[in-house]
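Hi support team,

I submitted a single chain yesterday and got back a structure, but I'm not sure I'm reading the token output correctly. Could someone confirm the output below corresponds to the sequence I sent? I've pasted both exactly as they appear in my results page.

Thanks,
R.
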Amino acid sequence: MLDIIALILVIIGGINWGSIGIFQFDLVAWIFGGQAALVSRIIYTLVGIAALWCISLLFRENRFTHTDE
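Hi R., thanks for writing in. Yes, this is the structure output for that exact sequence:
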């Protein structure tokens, strides 16, 4: 479950960075009242922590294997 939450947060962060890069528009800051707003800073922090967590996904063995029957 934690992996799914982390991936969702990383996707939100990626969409936000995409909007900044393409449109120079910070969606999170716009929704929550600016980059310095407490809620925005919490979201930025959670996205950063989620990105660090997702690094561990690169080094885990896949739990699901496909077998030919």
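A quick pointer for reading it: The mean pLDDT is 91. Let us know if anything else looks off.

Best,
Support desk
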